Amino acid sequence: MxxxxxxxxxxxxxxxxxxxxxxxxxxxxxxxxxxxRNAMEHAHRAIEQVHDNADQKAVSDMEQQMEQLQARFELxxxxxxxxxx
Length: 85
Fold this sequence. Notes:
By secondary structure, this protein is mainly α. It has helices spanning 3-24, 30-50, 56-83. The longest helix has 28 residues, at 56-83. The protein is elongated, with a radius of gyration of 14 Å. The N and C termini lie far apart (48 Å). The mean pLDDT is 86.
C-alpha cells in the first residue's frame, strides 16, 4: 500500500476531529452531529483500509487518536442531547 493511502487516512481523521470540534461548539445541532458522525465513520473505514499494509506506528497512532475522538464525540453528543427540548 502506498503512502498516499496513509495520508488519506490521516486526512480523514483530521476531518473527523474538525467535525467533532464543531459539534462541541454547537450544541443542539442535528446536522452538525450527523456530519461529525459521518466524518468519524469515514475516518474509521480509512484507518481500517491501511491497517495491515502501512507503517504500523502511524496506524497505531491514528487508532489511538480515533479512540480519543470517539470519547469526545460521545461527550459532545450527550451534551447536545441535554439541550434538546
